[in-house]
TrEMBL record:
Record's signal peptide: none
Domain DNA-binding protein H-NS-like C-terminal as annotated: residue spans: 71-115
Record's protein name: H-NS histone family protein
Cellular component GO terms held in the UniProt record: nucleoid
Amino acid sequence: MASTLADINSQIKKNEEHIAQLRAQAEELRNHERAGVIEELRQKIAEYGLTAADLKLSSRGSAAGGKRSVTASPVKAAAKYRGPAGETWSGGRGRKPRWVTEALAAGKSLSDYEIK
């Protein structure tokens, strides 16, 4: 058992060095295992003729270690109304465009601007 502060600090330093060595070994083993997993996946992809689309992977690059979710881009709603200057609006939720609020304030109806 350590009896002085210097002895305790010395043991802490040794333990920290040992922990750093163990972490380096763990990282090396993980990289080795990862390489094996990648090779196994490549073989399965080739064997079954899989594509990135089959796996729902983005063609824009890797998924940052598999942590980024792959989502579809939001689809813009079809325009239902056309303003006097050619601007369009889908009539969806949220704030109305300025041209709509101005038209309504002037006594116009949304049906006047419907795209048919």
